[in-house]
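In this section we walk through a basic example: taking a raw amino acid sequence and producing a predicted 3D structure, encoded as discrete structure tokens. The instruction is simple. Fold the sequence below.
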Amino acid sequence: MPAMKRKLDERDRPQPSSPPKPADTPIPSFASFELEPRLLRGVRDQRWNEPSKPQAEAIPLAIQGKDIILRAGTGTGKTAAYLLPILNTIVRRPRESSPTTTALILVPTKELAQQVTKLARDLSAHCGQSVRTQNLAGKESDVVARAKLAELPDIVVATPARASAHINKGALSLDGLGHLVIDEADLVMGYGFKEDLEAISKSIPKGVQIFLMSATLSTDVEALRPLFRLTEPVVLDLGDLEKDSQQVKQYVIRCAEDEKFLLVYALFMLKLIRGKSIIFVGDVDRSYRVSLFLGQIGIKSCVLNSELPLASRLRMVEEFNKNVYNILIASDEAEVVGSRTKANDDESRPKKKAKSNKTESGVSRGIDFIDVSSIINFDLPSNYKSYFHRIGRTARAGKTGTAISFVIPADKFRKHKPTSFAGSKDDEDVLAKIEQKMEGGQKMENYGFDMKKLEPFRYRFQDALRAVTRIAVREARLKELRTELVNSSKLSRYFEENPEALSHLRHDLNLNHPTRIQPHLAHVPSYLLPGGKKAVEDMGFVGLEKEKKGRAVYRKGKKVVRNKAGKIDPLKTFNMRGRGKK
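The resulting token sequence is shown next.
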């Protein structure tokens, strides 16, 4: 059957090559795929009761050896949709076959590479030495990477740049390759990996099964078809589950710049938001400012800082998933302040930038966060696509979630310079574009927050915000970097040879906290609550210190109060009629 060029729809997405199955089609079980029993045990360890829709559609086709282009929302199991067929092929190959690299998985970020590697090892945990997986996306030296590749691992996970470099050096051989996966294909193209992909495509032998996985199907993904000689791939356009109005309840709050902090104070102190939350801000400085502000009111949070090493960022994600922290603050490093695209220019193709765009914090795409109940867009992103990727961190795997976005109206921009953010200039234009791109009856509702009811909190919020100065933000960033240096395993040998450097770092870590902690701000008196549980006149005076018992004595019917030294305190002994009067 000759290959036909498929048309693109109005959203710049290729039309599916075959109509989707009806909604009432029963979802099969993992056992119905006839996977190797050891892999089914790995699936049970993940506590997956039944395959997700992308897995149910893609796995049978992949086992048949078909090339697949899959579009599905984040959190829908795309990674397992290609890992299980690949692992099934590796486990069932003849024992006498010589070892070779069977699968190459290309991902855009190091964080995603670590996540894919972990899932591959977890699913093949009961397969012994039959499956060996290596991650080459880290910062290890070429000597270490060459040693890993010399063992001819079955699965190699890497970024396109690292894979291309090892192919050119002869360390990575693709002669026996059977599967090629490009995960988050649109991001791979958008991060400037086109030249690396072209170099890799020249080393790919004919007949390799190819998977293109993405949350969107755009012209970037379509450009990969001729590059890797995909002639008749099966296109599974399963819809963008990140935009399911039944999954994510979306709200917008129009407020002044300083009121963003007041709203965050109220949302968490009044427990209007429960569960785990991710707060998205515009840049790293803003993330530390929000974190320090929350610390003032006694709320723990962690910052996902792209300046930190990969291992530190992954540890932060793991602690968030394990509920060590319930609030994670992150910024999208791909969004550069001052380069915001206008609402009518979002569709235009961005200009090619420096190679620094290849790395980002990895929060809005790729990284898997567990049980996130709410997303707070403290700073609205630069375009509608980033917005939908952000809110895709919640309502994953069929669960519900909430997304709250703070929007600065044009007449309130730059009215409070200490809390102003340059990226908020076009909030209204970006919001209009987001609402225009919504599908399926989806809408952003007005949260209806009555700001007048928050007036009693203003003095507390201002007191907390006043302590978060520019110097405090700088010191917080430096303190975290020093902590990472002290705990770095790679620097342990250096510190053994230079103990003075370690003592200096530890000395700096023992300095005062970047901001003055004010414990009283963590307590919200009931009379400050909207509506009030008690009236002010019913509140009795409560001293700052406990009353000391046994100090007051009576001498000839008169009250005498003694101080700590045992002497009579004249200021507390006078009677109301004056001294000496009876």
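Looking at the output, two observations stand out. The first strand starts at residue 68 and ends at 71. DSSP finds 19 helices and 16 strands in the chain. In the next section we compare this with other chains.
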